[in-house]
Amino acid sequence: MNNKEIEKKWQKYWDKHKTFEAHENGNKKPYYILVEFPYPSGAGLHVGHVRSYTAQDALARMMRLQGYNVLYPMGWDAFGAPAEQYAIKNHIHPKEAVKENIKTFKTQMKSLGFSFDWSREFSTTDPEYYKWTQWQFLQFYKHGMAYKDTIPVNWCPTCKSVLSNEDAAGGVCERCGSSVVQKEKSQWMLRMSDYSEDLLKGLNDTNFAERVKLGQINWIGKSEGAHIDFKIDGHDKKFTVFTTRCDTLYGATYCVLAPEHPYVDEITTSEHKKEVNDYKKECSFKNDLERTELNKDKTGVFTGAYAINPVNNSKIPIYISDYVLATYGTGAIMAVPAHDDRDYEFAKKFDIPIIQVLEEVTGTPHENETKKNSIVAIVYDEKEDKYLTINWHDKGGRLFIGGTIKDDESAVDCAKREIAEETGYNDLELISILPKINHHYYAFNKDKYFNIESTGLFFKLKSYNKVDQNLDEDEVFDVEWVSKKQIDEVKDELHAKTFEYAMNPGAMVGDGIHINSDFLDGLNKEDAINQMIEFLKEHHCGEKQVNYKMRDWIFSRQRFWGEPIPMIDCPKCGWVPMNEEDLPLLLPDVAEYEPTEDGESPLANISDWVNCKCPKCGGDAKRETDTMPNWAGSSWYFLRFMDAHNTKEFASMDKMKYWNRVDWYNGGMEHTARHLLYARFWVQFLYNIGLVPHKEMIWTRVSHGMVLGSDNQKMSKSKGNVINPDDIVKEYGADTLRVYEMFMGDYQMDAPWSTDSLRGCKRFLDKIVRLKDKVNDNDGFTESLEVLQNKTIKKVEYDLTHMGYNTAISSLMILANAYDDKDSITKEDYHLLLVLLYPTAPHITEELNEMIGYSPICEGDWPVCDEDKIQEDTREIAVQVNGKVRGTIEIHVQDDEQAIEEKAMECENVVKHIEGKEIVKVIVIKGKIVNIVVR
RNA sequence: GCCUUAGUGGCGGAAUUGGUAGACGCGCUGGACUCAAAAUCCAGUGUUAGCAAUAACGUGCCGGUUCGAGUCCGGCCUGAGGCACCA
To answer: What is the pLDDT of residue A170?
Structure first.
């Protein structure tokens, strides 16, 4: 068979008959399947594209046969930097480059036989499309959702361009290697943060995969806490911090403002001015990513100013540090080093006091406890790398040195005394005092319940100097030095925990009971938070607050190749929106444009374009020269597909109501957080102003894994592991590539390319072709195949709707093998196999189907599984003895447990294993397994 | 650092709710057909022992729950992807 010819033949057939064009009529149920439209890069279609388009294509083709009115559209997300770069280099207009790329992509897609409705095709760069993107921006503006704000951007002084975080990684421009600086720019913003709660709640009206929802939830980042006002010593001003842990306020020993915080200059004392300014400058050279990545070492400087802790009026120093971000919360924090890891690190470095206000609770509380203070001491011998323990053997096991603190004694003195008394060692150096632990226990020797506050102390042994031990009569134990591994033998919760603290110094971030906190003492975290919020409210210095990490959307880009923002800056009227009837605002038709000196968009250099009249007063004015981000056009393209040629609206309400929403949306993992969130925000806004029928227009969202190179690495030119789908189609045929990509592995996971496996799929299709020679003249189905046939119908149907593409193919292989075992099969048998395979391998199945005299599959029906045919009356189940399979038995479906048990007991190999043993019990799980427990 | 996600034969991967681990395919070994090769067909293929029946071991590591764990729980290790130090 000539693949090329039959592929062409059927692709032509489908085109000519407009088989896949969707129309908004008839009584078929509409179903909207969407794949992310690609960015048509110069590299051409990637085998990764083929994977997701084929998967959705199979679903679309099956559902059409099942009688759905399927909409499966395709278009182009063609604005973006690469096209712009390419165009600058080659002195052409980017639209020319894009045109070429789209042509290539479309030819490639067609060669793979995807059943897209090409009548709805558009590109985000078409003026007929971006007219509506601009129009929608104007709606945002008119509803107070768009505003200008000054935002720092990554700026490369050499390239004179604004860089993405990605291109500015490590503070170095990816293109030219110069260091990147932060530059303030006035930018258009969309008030996305106003939608935080709605975007969170809206997830309930979607069927997104759980992990996709989680991605969205984490991005929105809701946290409940409080804001607290801190007075500044010697100033009238107050600053506000946001915290989720207001219960730890008594432990706040300093505050930190973001270097960009507006109060910094004002409160910095003259002797700290230079340091602070230098530090601010230093930070301005770092982008957010750097602040994140190079976070190993905390940096910061003291401003010289002090804040007043509102709960106890203590003066605490105010620092600035880049570990506090201006963009999150209030740009200021109260630092509680005892109970926050970052604060702990910072406090250690700057030698700021650490006050513990929460202690962990171990053991079980009991009535009538006796309270006392005590210590647990850990002594480390560096030379031998061993720890000092005492072994009580069966009277209490291995422990460290413990003891009760006497009235006039410090914890350290107590520890030293106890160590000397119990072990004799007396030449010690204190390494650290560990957080206190609140421990409950029962002492057998005293028959009493105790509640102790235990202080952990960590010592280093300086020398083996010893004094005489001083032991009571009942103190019978061995003093033993043990390795770290043997510390596992310390089972006592208090001692084990103390050791853990010693090994991992840091903040105690968990729950516990409060200490050193006046009215909070004794309360747990939750209660203490509530009490503290009450206190703050009463004293007018704070209240409960919900905070979201999601920020407003920076909507400006200093680029040429994007949708122009339709705003006009008038010296008299300020910012004025363009008249809607003047849209689209076209990009100028020039092939030469250079970036400006000062980071404005290249459009700023094109004065013909920039200079215009104010729509309000008619005076001279200038256009906004920034363009929209790539995310804009892709935030609503799925709505346009519902009504792609509408010239009066972006899409009519009627058509949107007809299609209802996107039923199934597939795309890459990398877009499940941001793109999806932007699109949802856009839709929710349109819904709120009455322009779309639902608040959520996407029902199910799933994400696919990447196709990696055969070396298990991401495909890239530099690694030389790129597979071009054209080559595969040429050598093996489109159907082989399609089947292979469906079979290669779990659709939702990455999978490496294997040409060997591809050949296996070619062999499978060859077998399908050969089976045609087995077709006989009998009517109906071959009886002995009917069980498997109906099971396969059910399996393929289930798998194609549950992303089990690989197992769908494998079940078809099983069916084909069963056919192959027969001397002959009927036409009906063969036709059924072809229909089931058609969604994945449409060309070859149509051809073979035609050869046996049937009308085209694409115009026929999907088979229905006959449930009666797949009922079996016998079944093989396993018999286990003590959980190990020792044999199998054949049971009838109607057998009761008694009968199954008897059969199991007769099984030859089972008899061997239960002979002479006592049968404890027999577990019979009907239809599944028998397990005989013997002793 | 945080979030997400994974780890099963020589390889890609199956195992819908805790119930016969390794379906299906690749690769490999042996055989048939052929002058020969390709293609195709037949048999075998987790490891170890055994002619075999069978037995022991086996789903990243350590521990737990259970009659029974790839699947559930606790603790680690490693890979991949994402990120805006989220207080």
So the answer is: 64
Give the mean pLDDT per block of 10 residues along chain A (935 residues). Answer: 90 96 90 94 90 96 96 94 82 89 95 97 95 96 92 76 70 73 84 92 88 87 90 91 92 91 91 90 65 63 94 93 82 89 85 90 85 93 88 83 92 95 94 89 85 92 92 86 77 82 79 90 89 94 89 89 94 94 91 75 87 94 93 94 96 96 90 89 95 94 90 83 92 95 93 93 95 92 93 95 94 95 93 97 96 95 93 84 87 82 83 83 86 87
Is residue A305 exposed (0-12), middle (13-18) or buried (19+ Cβ within 10 Å)? Answer: buried
Whether any strand B atom is under 7 angstroms from the Cβ of A870: the reply reads no
Angle subtended at Cα A837 by Cα A834 and Cα A842, rounded to the nearest 5 degrees: 90
Longest distance between any two alpha carbons in chain A, whole Å:
106
- Separation CA A838–CA A58 (nearest Å): 8
SS3 A355: coil
CA separation for the pair A622, A647 (Å, rounded): 28
Q: What is the pLDDT of residue A324?
A: 85
Name the residue with tokens 């597939």: A666
DSSP codes joined into one string, A570-590: ETTTEEEEPPGGG---PPP--
Any strand B atom closer than 7 Å to A675 CB: no
In order of A99, A250, A309, A339, A519, the CA distances from A312 in angstroms are: 69, 7, 6, 18, 11
User: What is the per-residue pLDDT for A505?
Assistant: 76
Tokens representing A287 are 């982008």
Give the H or E element holding residue A702.
strand A698-704
Angstrom distance (rounded) from CA A770 to CA A361: 73
Give nearest nucleotide to A816 (CA–C1').
Answer: B24
DSSP β-bridge partners for residue A523? none
Q: CA quadruple A345, A346, A351, A356: dihedral positive or negative?
A: negative
Report DSSP letters for A384-435, one per residue. TTEEEEEE-GGGT-EE-EEEEPPTT--HHHHHHHHHHHHH-B--EEEEEEPP
Q: What is the pLDDT of residue A291?
A: 60
Output the pLDDT for position A294. Answer: 45
CA to C1' distance (Å), from A351 to B76:
33
Q: What radius of gyration, in Å, describes the C-alpha atoms of chain A?
A: 36
Q: Measure A737 CA to B41 C1' (Å).
A: 26
For B24, nearest residue by CA–C1' is A810
| Span between the terminal Cα atoms of chain A, in Å | 65
How many C-alpha atoms does A3 have within 13 Å on its Cβ side? 18
Question: Distance between CA atoms of A229 and A615, rounded to whole angstroms?
Answer: 46
Side-chain-side CA neighbours of A351 within 13 Å: the count stands at 0
Q: Could you tell me if A632 and A590 are in contact, meaning their C-beta atoms sit under 8 angstroms apart?
A: no
CA A933 to chain centre: 45
Cβ of residue A192 lies below 7 Å from strand B: no
In whole angstroms, give the CA distance from residue A108 to residue A726. Answer: 7
**With b meaning 16 or more CB within 10 Å and e meaning fewer, what string describes A452-488?**
bbbbbbbbebeeeeeeeeeeeeeeebeeebbeeeebe
A385 burial type by CB count under 10 A (0-12 exposed, 13-18 middle, 19+ buried)? exposed
DSSP secondary structure letter of residue A709: P
Strand B and A822 CB separated by under 7 Å: no
Compute the distance between CA of residue A138 and CA of residue A579 in angstroms, rounded to an integer.
Answer: 9
pLDDT of residue A632: 93
